[in-house]
Amino acid sequence: MAALLVIALVTGCVGAPVQEMYDARQAVKAAHAVDAEKYAPDLMVDAQRLLASAKANVSKGEYRVARDEAEQAREKAMEARRIAELAKSPQPGP
Fold it and tell me: How far is the C-alpha of 28 from the C-alpha of 72, rounded, in Å?
């Protein structure tokens, strides 16, 4: 019984990073929606590069690497979105 539990836990960690890939794609879309390419171009390039690399690694079965890259892509896209939203928000006057 304990062996089955260990196997289930290990295989759960090695599976395709479906949720992480979804989260990364959604974060990139949200960043695009606020024109993050204009306000944080380097972060957007990094996010898109990491997402593309994660997709390639999923195809190769490199799930741990893909998971890490997807998480990094999400973080960069979220930061780019934050920067864009701040840049577009009205600034208080003197």
Answer: 11
CB neighbour list of residue 67: distance below 8 Å, 6 or more residues apart: 17, 20, 54
Domain ranges of the chain: 37-88
Q: What pLDDT is recorded for position 41? A: 98
> Using an 8 Å Cβ cutoff, are 84 and 31 in contact?
yes
Helix/strand/coil for 15: coil
Measured CA to CA, the distance from residue 69 to residue 21 in angstroms comes to: 9
Over residues 8-38, the pLDDT tens digits come to 444 455 699 999 999 999 999 999 999 999 9
